[in-house]
Design goal:
With about 160 residues, this protein is α+β, with helices and mostly antiparallel strands. The chain is about 35% helix and about 10% strand.
């Protein structure tokens, strides 16, 4: 299953970036020697008392992460910017002029976000009975005991 998902990911990226076709999983983009360390992070030394070096190689689609600069260098992204920059570029590419509307969706809150310090928003009218009814629907609550509390909290916050 993991290989199937990986192959599907590579196919999707290759479809969107044809110049990378056949290069994502095969072409080595980083090949260098890095300092070796043990499982506690201590440097390993060779017989001369110098830090031991080990070979390090990477391909574009190896499951690791890249900085934005690296992703641009390796052809995985076109530009580095913020949401406003992406909106301006999409507007330009679609030749929309000034007649367009941007719609953004908020991520739903979870019980974990409530307890981990996310700002709690109160619904303007207090308890939302429609949301409370949705919270009472037995979705996947059987996977997490006491999760009905999460649904009630979501309803009381107006989610």
């Amino acid at each position: 299953m993991v290989n199937q998902a990986y192959n599907q990911f590579v196919a999707v990226v290759e479809e969107g970036r044809p110049k990378l076709k056949g290069k994502l999983a095969q072409e080595i983009i980083i090949k260098e020697e890095i300092p070796a360390s043990d499982d506690k992070g201590q440097s390993l030394l060779n017989g001369n008392g110098e830090t031991k070096k080990v070979p390090f190689t990477r391909v574009r689609a190896d499951g690791g992460i890249f900085t934005a600069e690296q992703a641009k260098k390796y052809g995985l992204i076109d530009e580095i910017g913020y949401l406003d920059d992406a909106i301006k570029e999409a507007k330009k590419l679609a030749a929309l002029g000034d007649n367009y509307e941007v719609i953004s969706y908020d991520r739903p809150h979870s019980l974990a976000s409530l307890f981990l310090g996310e700002e709690v928003r109160q619904s303007p009218g207090g308890l939302d009975f429609q949301k409370l009814g949705q919270a009472a629907t037995p979705r996947l609550w059987f996977l997490a005991p006491q999760s009905d509390l999460a649904g009630l909290l979501a309803a009381s916050r107006g989610e």
